């Protein structure tokens, strides 16, 4: 896959991850709002119970207590449904974000490979140029009687010698 193809896929994956995360956040806010309503209804019921136990309860509060019981049951069911709906949304958001991570890594790898190949191509150009320069130097050396060995006209630098003979970079690089 090319860098451009990977980048295009990454952009699409980021969009999908954002959508999945947004859907998860909306669902989480809904579940949180329902949990808050359940907590508020239970707190109101507790306040009514406390007032009744202290002898300060009213008939209106007794009716409210009964209504709150039904509300709590309905709201609790709604909260459970909302919480259950979070699980697949969470998995989808996680999968979408994992896709983004994988494509980021693939893009980094493709970019590194392209950089390596560009450097390798340039090194090959420089090496070909060096070979031409050595050939020219050798021919010029032959013209002035330096002999038939390349080493009579051209000597490798210590850095290049280290690369060729020892398979190690020069210490000064």
Stretches where pLDDT is under 50 for at least 5 consecutive residues are none
| Count of alpha and pi helical runs | 4
| Biggest pleated-sheet summary | none
Helix content: over 70%
Class derived from helix and strand content: mainly alpha
Gyration radius from CA atoms, angstroms:
38 Å
Beta content comes to under 5%
Q: What shape does the CA trace take?
A: rod-shaped
N-to-C terminal Cα separation, in Å? Answer: 33 Å
Summarize the structure in words.
- With 173 residues, this protein is mainly α.
- It contains four helices and no strands.
- Helix 1 packs antiparallel against helix 2.
- The radius of gyration is 38 Å and the shape is rod-shaped.
How would you summarize this macromolecular structure in one to three sentences?
It contains four helices and no strands. It is mostly helical and 173 residues long.
Task: Identify the notable features of this structure and list them briefly.
173 residues; 86% helix; mainly alpha
In terms of topology, how is this protein built?
Elements: H1 3-53, H2 59-143, H3 150-153, H4 158-166
Helix pairs in contact: 1-2
